[in-house]
Amino acid sequence: MDKVCGTDIHKDSVFACILDEKGKKFLEERYGTLTPDLNKMRDDLKSHGVSRVAMESTSIYWMPVWQVLIQDFKLTLVNPYFIKQLPGYKSDVKDAHWIARCLHKDLLRGSYVPDNDLQQMRQYSRRYHSLSKRIVCVEQRLDNYLQRCNIRFSNYVSYQGRNVSIRKVINAIRNGERDPAELCKLVHGRIKNKHGQSIIAASLTGIITATDVEMRVNGQN
User: Fold this and answer.
1) What is the mean pLDDT of residues 67-78?
2) Which of 5, 49, 51, 114 is the most buried (most CB within 10 A)?
3) Which element (helix H / strand E) includes 29?
4) Looking at the structure, do residues 16 and 65 belong to the same domain, yes or no?
């Protein structure tokens, strides 16, 4: 049986414990988490003949370690809860040693870790959803500012699809336009036909102060 290594990963340190072919502790070492430190750990594990490495999925701290080790070792990522539920776990046993022992006895069930291409696609997807949520929040806040000024245009048209008429009205208000008739000209004809031009003009008749424009409609506060 080959040598195995258990790692206990923290924000500023990685504890590595290597067991020999018989499951006895061969080496225990503490490394930093900077890239040169992780590269040194990788080189040390390679020089000692380690072929398998296990680590807990601790926050996001495991990700850089995984990236450094993935090309040279068979890696196992384990849920911390699963580690602590294994029979025989003692709180006074150092985590790296315990993980190595469990790996040596083939007791660990690894979590699914996608390949690099899929991980990158997931990052793009999470970023897209995050930006979409931020856009919705900004739109809701901006509508609240307009409602405060008694601009009720959003009662008749939705922000859904980043409505062009709303953008034109807001830009006109920012540039100093206050006349409901002029603002109404910026609204798509379909909206005015549906609700009536007088209703739309009334919804654009606001009580707007310079402070409202500077601190709210401009989105500075």
Assistant:
1) 92
2) 5
3) strand 25-31
4) yes
